[in-house]
Amino acid sequence: MNLVQPFPRTLNFTIALFILLIVVSPLGFVADAQRRGTRGRNQTRRGNDAPLRAGIDVDPLQTSRSNAEIRRMLAEIDRRNIERIVRRLVAFGTRNTLSAQDNPTRGIGAARDYLYSEFTQIAQSSRGRLTVEKQTFEQPAAPPPQGRVPRPTMITNVVATLRGSQPASADRVYVVSGHYDSMCTSPTDAECDAPGANDDASGTAAVVEMARVMSKREFEATVIFMAVAGEEQGLLGATYFAEQAKQRGMNIEAMFTNDIVGNTVGGNGVQDRRTVRVFSEGVPSNETTQEAATRRSVGGENDSSARQLARFIKDVGERYVPEARVQIIYRRDRYGRGGDHIPFLERGFAAVRFTEPNEDYRHQHQNVRTENGIAYGDLPQFVDYGYIATVARINAAALASLALAPARPKGVSIVTGQLTNDTEIRWTANTEPDLAGYEIVWRETSAPLWTNSRAVGNVTSFTMRGMSKDNYFFGVRSVDRQGNRSPVSYPRPVSRTAR
Ligand SMILES: [Zn+2]
């Protein structure tokens, strides 16, 4: 089934009727999981009779049900909605962060109020499970040439929260964002037209559309859909949110920014409608001196939590959206550019950036004009709405899989106390009631992606006999009874006595 092509309307109706007839709970995943929970627990008890048996009791029927519900959700993502939102945002003339905050038709204030009302409408059909708020703060002046804020400026992030349904997981948060501010050639020109159709109405529209389809369903962990401002002024909205989150101890397990996800014909002439780049850093932005010393000693520069997140997105995204390709880029961001994932990375949260594969710089950060027959400006006619829908599906597949799965294992360590050809890995136990157990994954040290996995049961340590930690990279992921898998946690070395 090609999910990118919208179904004919009659077929849509037939499918909807079919779903209505066969699905007991239209709210999907979690109710199914709870119904099946009893049987899952019984299976685990039987497994405990043979405690050394390596294996995880995963209900294959449940796995396929969850998959089917995610597929139904992805099919609801509608390019026409995305186009409507992008064109509406463009119609505010400019969304420069320094533009009017109180003009109802032009400027960033009008865009802010529009997004708040879009999210609020979505919340009304979510049975109260999606809540919407404006996070407003005053950004102090940072005049040019050092800064891009000539005078103190109020900045507002519009934040919609879909609270997780499982008490053990509801405090675990996944954030997806786009920035709704825009700029023309000069970042401090608040009067010029700055349509910002691709940068970044595309990402903002993708986030709103994800909120619409995901808020009809329940997830065990919490998902935050966010439209931020001040990106072009220096990542200001995202920085404020990330700093507040850090100070409040919010457990953000992953953050995606979607920024420039709407153009499929590059300035190099290449057309590519199937690839999306996922930028992920290798060496963590918040690495400590001690961690750097360990990395120099035994490697790990390709195994940050952001890199594990990128691998997870590629795995899940290409499984659910097989016509798409997730191109992992081993960089924090492009040369000379930055994005809203960076303030999250700097505060220790795993974060990645989604961006189209071939950019056209004539349509970014340009005054709208024609010069020598070339059209400049970030206009809606240069945006491929079907492509944004594809990117939104990859995001939503990954977010849904993350928010349905257990947390990635914590305290994962590789025991280095004595020289041995075996590899002993330890971790702390997860707390989710539907946890089935863990899988050890590994790969050759020169391989980019995890190549092997072994189910090891519901244990907190495991020894890979005859496999030397010197010759492979290892990791651990958690699995629930429905077969939902977490991203991989990469171990830190500890000596046995240090534990
Ligand atoms: Zn941008």
Which sheet architecture does the biggest sheet show? 8 strands, mixed
The chain-level mean pLDDT equals 89
Distance from N terminus to C terminus (CA atoms, Å) equals: 50 Å
Output the CATH class name of the largest domain: Alpha Beta
Order of helices and strands: HHHHHEEEHEHEEHHEHEEEHEEEEEEE
CATH superfamily of the largest domain: Zn peptidases
Please, how many helices?
A: 11
CATH architecture of the largest domain, please?
Answer: 3-Layer(aba) Sandwich
- The outline comes out as globular
Which strand order spans the largest sheet, edge to edge or round the barrel?
A: 1-2-4-3-5-8-6-7
* Residues in β-strands, percent: 15-25%
CATH topology of the largest domain: Aminopeptidase
Poorly predicted spans: 1-28, 31-53
Number of domains: 2
Bound molecules: zinc ion
**Broad structural category:** alpha/beta
Describe this structure in words.
The chain is an alpha/beta fold. The chain has eleven helices and 17 strands. The protein has two domains: 74-404, Aminopeptidase, CATH 3.40.630; 410-498, Sandwich (Immunoglobulin-like). The protein has helices spanning 9-22, 29-48, 60-76, 79-90, 108-124, 197-214, 236-247, 289-298, 305-320, 341-346, 385-404; strands at residues 130-139, 153-162, 172-179, 222-228, 251-258, 275-279, 325-329, 351-355, 369-371, 374-376, 410-415, 423-428, 435-444, 452-457, 461-464, 472-480, 492-494. The strands form four sheets. The protein has an eight-stranded mixed β-sheet, with helices on both faces. It has a four-stranded mixed β-sheet with strand order 15-12-11-17, with no helix packed on it. A three-stranded antiparallel β-sheet has the order 14-13-16, with no helix packed on it. Zinc ion binds at residues 179, 199-200, 231, 259-260.
